[in-house]
Write a structure and sequence with these properties.
Blueprint lengths: L3 H9 L6 H19 L3 H13 L5 H12 L2 H23 L7 E4 L4 H12 L5 E5 L6 H11 L4 E4 L4 H4 L5 E4 L3 E3 L4 E5 L2 H10 L4 E4 L5 E2 L16 H4 L14 E5 L5 E4 L2 E3 L1 H6 L2
Parallel strand pairs: 1-2, 1-4, 2-3, 4-7, 5-8, 7-10
Antiparallel strand pairs: 5-6, 6-9, 10-11
Helix pairs in contact: 1-3, 2-3, 2-4, 2-5, 5-6
The protein binds ribulose-1,5-diphosphate.
The site of ribulose-1,5-diphosphate has 21 residues, from helix 2, helix 6 and strand 6.
Length: 278
């Protein structure tokens, strides 16, 4: 069994990334941990450490709430299965929005958004993708590589060029770390807000692929700020930026009015329908 420290390190360093994958990776670890240690204080501490590793995404939190109530080992498998099944349904539901010939813009690396793209392609639709590099960690390159491997035509662009190219696409499709009920916001990788604004300006549908465990009713909510050292190394070498403060938030807050539809495992919904979901 991997140590808790190693699992946390894999998550913090973004070796494991994307809200769903982070939740599944943590659940797999906690399942083995609970087999040895039960659901007592040790579990609570380990769960909290994992939740705090990437505190913005809500899936793991929602899964832990269920586990704390049910306190059963088989709940881990149930939740992992539920998340994987949700992705398949999201793919199917989302693909209905994608027509053959569509150009789609995406941002960062979202397993759920990618599942929609892959499904559309598997259904024989001719589609092509614009993927933003996604500064500073360049997760969009991973997206582009994954698509290229599947022979899905993909163009990699800088984040700054998203506004330039958005007028040429048919829709924008991104994932979600959380859908905040109280503030009526989509939370996703930094850069998502500017993309949503640009898409709305050019009247391009802005779609979000998100399972319903991403609905976020937490009272306490923080946007993770990541270390300055993730910003280009040549810029932050000692002496280069003296007297300059660097900030590196990991996620954007996007008002849901900019989102046309949220694609979930239960169907495709308007944001206000998601907010009413129990
Ligand atoms: C990833 C990101 C993804 C969401 C959804 O950010 O913003 O769009 O997490 O991913 P990071 P998924 O790389 O910082 O984790 O659809 O895979 O749950």
């Amino acid at each position: 069994m991997r140590s808790l420290e190693k699992v946390v390190e894999d998550i913090k360093s973004v070796k494991v990334q994307g809200a769903k994958e982070i939740a599944i990776y943590s659940l797999k670890f906690l399942k083995e941990f609970c087999k040895e240690n039960g659901f007592g204080l040790k579990f609570e501490v380990a769960a909290k450490v994992l939740e705090d590793a990437r505190p913005t995404a809500v899936v793991l939190h929602n899964c832990l709430e269920i586990l704390k109530k049910e306190k059963r080992i088989r709940t881990f498998d149930k939740l992992i299965k539920q998340l994987d099944k949700a992705t398949k349904r999201i793919a199917k539901n989302g693909s209905r929005l994608i027509k053959s010939g569509y150009k789609i813009m995406t941002h960062c690396h979202s397993g759920e958004a990618l599942a929609v793209i892959k499904k559309a392609r598997n259904e024989g639709k001719r589609i092509s993708i614009f993927a933003t590099i996604t500064e500073p960690l360049e997760q969009g390159v991973r997206t582009a590589k994954e698509l290229a491997k599947l022979k899905i035509p993909v163009t990699l662009i800088t984040d700054n060029a998203a506004g330039f190219f958005v007028k040429d696409v048919d829709c924008v499709l991104v994932g979600a770390d959380a859908i905040r009920v109280d503030s009526k916001e989509l939370i996703n990788k930094t850069g998502t807000l500017l993309l949503a604004l640009a898409a709305n300006e050019f009247k391009k549908p802005f779609y979000v692929a998100a399972n319903t465990l991403k609905i976020d009713r937490r009272k306490k909510f923080i946007i993770e700020e990541r270390p300055a050292k993730e910003i280009r190394q040549e810029l932050i070498r000692p002496g280069k930026l003296e007297g300059i403060k660097i900030r590196n938030p990991a996620f954007d807050r996007v008002p849901l009015r900019y989102v046309k539809n949220i694609i979930t495992e239960k169907g495709v919904f308007k944001p206000k329908e998601i907010l009413r979901m129990r």
